[in-house]
Design a protein that fits this description.
With 125 residues, this protein is an alpha+beta fold. It is built from six helices and four strands. A four-stranded mixed sheet has the order 2-1-3-4, covered by helices on one side. This is DUF393 domain-containing protein.
Length: 125
């Protein structure tokens, strides 16, 4: 099972999760947020990380820009070209990720919460 952990209180993160669900072709892909019971039982995996987290088969853990890249390539083969971003040094990619994350609440503003449909609920832990 592959699990994406995200900030459920962040509108940008929620928009990304909607995009992931819409484009997902991987039946083993699941989603949860930092406030879920699943996260609390598995939080020893990465304490104090201010990033989305992707866990692949409970062995490989990605954060920051690597998580973003590997989420896309994990959900759908059409996103494999995104792997070319790994040509850039991780420090550069991660700094861009952190800069966007710092201002994410100003970039995407939304007053309402999304309620997943029944078909979307199957992806959530």
């Amino acid at each position: 099972m592959n699990v994406l952990i995200f900030d459920g209180e962040c509108n940008m993160c929620s928009a990304f999760v909607r995009f992931v669900i819409k484009n997902n072709k991987n039946r083993d892909f699941r989603i949860t947020d930092f406030n879920s019971d699943w996260y609390y039982t598995h939080s020893e995996l990465l304490p104090n990380v201010d990033s989305m987290i992707l866990i692949i088969n409970e062995r490989k853990i990605y954060t920051y820009s690597d998580a973003f890249i590997h989420v896309l390539t994990n959900i759908n083969k059409k996103f494999y070209p995104v792997l070319t971003l790994k040509i850039l040094p991780r420090i550069i990619r991660d700094n861009v990720y952190k800069l966007i994350a710092k201002y994410r609440k100003r970039i995407v503003r939304k007053k309402t919460c999304d309620i997943p449909t029944r078909s979307q609920q199957e992806y959530f832990l």
